[in-house]
TrEMBL record, chain B:
Residues 1-10 have a biased composition (Polar residues). Its cofactor is heme. The chain crosses the membrane at residues 61-80, 124-145, 157-177, 189-211, 223-246, 279-300, 355-379, 400-425, 431-451. This is Cytochrome bc1 complex cytochrome b subunit. Residues 1-21 are annotated as: Disordered. InterPro entries: Cyt_b/b6_N, Cytb/b6-like_sf, Di-haem_cyt_TM.
Amino acid sequence: MNDEMKPRRRKHGRRSPLASVALVLTGLLMTGGAYALFTAATPASASVDLTSTQTIQEGKKLFAANCATCHGLNLAGSDSGPSLIGVGAAAVDFQVGTGRMPLAKDAAQAPDKPPVFNDTQVKQLAGYVASISPGPGIPAASNLTLTGDATKGAELFRINCAMCHNVAGAGGALTEGKYAPNLMETSPSHIYEAMLTGPQNMPVFNDDNITPQEKQDIITALKTQSKSETVGGFALGSLGPVAEGLFIWIFGLGAVVAFTVWLTAKAN
Amino acid sequence: MTTTSDTYNFDPTAPADSRRSGGITGWASRYVDERTGISYVVREFGRKIFPDHWSFMLGEVALYSFVVILITGTFLTFFFQASMAEVTYDGSYGPLKGLEMSAAMQSTLHISFEIRGGLLIRQVHHWAALLFVASTMLHMLRIFFTGAFRKPRELNWVIGFVLWILAMAEGFTGYSLPDDLLSGNGLRIIAGMVEGIPFIGSWILWLLFGGEFPGTAIVGRLYTLHILLLPAAVLAFIALHLVFVVTHKHTQYAGPGRTNENVIGVPVLPVFAAKAGGFFFVVFGLLMLMGAFFTINPIWVYGPYDPSPVSAGTQPDWYIGFADGALRLMPGWLGGPGGVPMEFVLFNTTYSLNILIPIVVLGLFIVAVMLYPFLEAWVTGDKREHHIADRPRNMPSRTAIGAAGVAFYTVLFFGASSDLIATHFKVSIESMITILQFMLVLGPVLAFFVTKRICLALQKKDRQIVLHGTESGRIVRLPGGEYIEVHEPVDEYERWKLVAFNDYEPLMLRPNAAGRIPVTERARAAISRLFFEDRIEPVTSTELEVARHH
C-alpha cells in the first residue's frame, strides 16, 4: 500500500508546476486578447451632410422617439435631462457616439456603452440638435490627421488631463463614484469632442484654452502612446505599480512556490 | 613540533606520482586545497543537513532574486547617469523628442531604447526587486507561523527583519532613480511626510534634498545609497543571516525520528547543492521570462518629472503601498469633514496629525514585527531551545496574531489602491475609503478570532483522529445486531505529527521573595491568559493507551 502511495504522491508534486505554467499561459492569452480588443480601431465616420433638410428631418424623428422624453422636443430639457440649447453637434456626436446617450439608468455618471445608433443616425441626431440651437460642431477630418507633435501633446496631456485620466490615459477615480474613463480606445473625433464640450465632470477646453493644433497634438500623443506601450511586452492594463505588484504575488511568487513544491516533492 | 601548533600536510617523502594521480581535476583540487585548506570547509559545510520542505526554500528565492538584482544592476550602472542636469532628449523614442529632462531620465530612456538588451535587463532588474521583497515577506511569514524565531533564533529573526527594511529601502531608492513623473510624485509624498514631522522635519528635508524639493541633488544621493551603502548592508546582513542558519542548523517539522536534537534531511553535498544551484537558474529564468514578456515601469509613458502635473492613480511599488495606504486612510477630520481638523497651528508650528499618526502607527507596526519573538518568549517564559517547527494550528494565539497582522497590512496595501478598486468595482472612492477605514480596525480583530477558532477546531480534529482514528465509512453489523462504523487507526508516522507539540498553560501568579506581585508580572499573566486560556492539550501517552484498549 505504501508503494502504491508513493508514485501517486510524486505525480501530485509534478502536477503543480504544469498547472502554474497553464495559469501563466492563460494569463498571457487573456492579457493578449484584452489588448487586441482594446486596440481594435473604431471605424471612421461616414460623411453625412449635417445641414441637409433630410438629415434634420430624420434626426428630428429619432430625437422625438428616443430623447425628447428627457430633453424635450425643443431641447429645453426636463426634470430627467438637462437643456441641450447650445451644446452643439459635437456634444451629441460624443454622447450618442460613445453610447452614453440615450441614458439607460440613473447613476453617478452616464457610462459609455455600445452605441445604440449607427453612425448615420448619430449624425442625423447631431444635425437636428445643431439646427435648433447652434454650438460647437463636429471636428473636421483635417483636425484629426494624427500628424500633430506627440511630444508637445504628451506634455499638454500631463499638465491638463493626467490628474483625472492618469498619465498613461488609463483613467482614474473622481469623487462620489464619478470617474475619468480610460482613453486608450477612444476615437480621435471623440477625444476632440470631449475636450470641446467637457462632458459631465470634465472641464471644457475651448479653443482659446487649448488651440485646435494643440488638441491635435494631444490626440496624436494619445494614439502614439496606445501603440508604443507594447515596447516592453504586455502592459498589464497600464495600471502601474499596483498591477505589477499583484502580478508578482500571484504569478511570480505563484510560479516560484510551484517550483519549490516540485523540487521537494521529487525527493520523497 | 608541539602538539598545539598546526601541522603541514606536505610530506616530502611521499612518492611524486601519488601526488599527481587523479588527472587534471585531481591536480587542480589538490593545488587549491594545499594552499587554502578548503577541503575542510567543503567537508564540514557539505555535510550540513537541510530538511526537505517546500516552505524552507522561500528564503532561497529571496537570496537568488538578490543575486539577479546584483547582476542586472551592475549592467545598469554602466549606462545610468545619476545626474539631474537638464538636457534635451534626442533619443529614438519619438513622443519625447525635444523635451527637457534630467540626465538621469535621459540615460534611463537610453538604456531602454538604444542599449542592446537594455530594456530587458531593466525590466528583469525591476521584477527581481519586486520578487525579492515579496519572497522575503513570504519567508518571514513562514518563519513566523512555524515559530522558527524562537530561541536560539531570535537574533536571526531581527537580522531578517533588518533585511526586509533594507530591501524596501533598496527598492524605494531604485524606483526614484529614473526621475520620471511617477517616481517623482512618490518622492514628493515622502518629502511631505518628512516635512510633516514637527520641528525637525524641514531640517531633515533640506539635509536630504540639499535645499527645497526637488532640488538638483536627490537623484545623485539616492544613487549612492542604492548602489553602495544599501547593497553592502544587505550583503553583510545576508552573510550574517546565513552564518546563523548554519550554526543553528535548520528547523524541521515534527516527524518520526525528528527530535529537537537532530536534523533529518539531505546533506548539502551533493543533492541539496545541485538542487539549490538548479533552483537559482529556475528563479533567474522565470525573472528573465517576466522581463521579456511583461512591461514594468514604462517611464516613457510617464514622462520626465515636473513638479506641477500629478497623475491620477499614482502608486508606489507594492512594498511601499502599505505606507501610502496609511496616509490615504487617515481621516483629515475627526468626525467627518467639518469636524476637528487633524492639521492645526500652535505657537507658529504646524502640527499635521494626519501625517504624524500614520507615521507613528506604521512605526509601531514595524517595531511589533521586530520584537514579537521577545514578546512571546516573555509571555511563555520558555527558555528552552526549539528546533522543531510548530504547525501553525498548534499555537493558536500566535497564528491568530499573525493573521491579524497580515489583515492589517493587507488593508493598508489595498488602501494605497483605493482609487483603482473604486473604478474597477464601480464604487465611489469615498465609500471605498470608509470601508477600508473600518476594515483596518475590524479586520485584524476579526482575523484574530476567526483564526484562533479555526486553529482550535483543527487541533480538536487532530485529537479525535489520534484517539479514535479516521472514519472509514465501513459500517459493520455486530452479532448483537448493533451497527457501528469502523474507525481506522491513524498510522504511526502520521500520528507523530499530530501529537508532538508544545503545550503552554496560562501563567499562574505567585508572589516573589518579597511577598509581592510586581506589575510586570501581572501584565505578563494577563497576556498569558489571553494567549493560552483556550487551548487543546496534546494527546498524552496514557490517553493513547486507554484509547487503544477501548
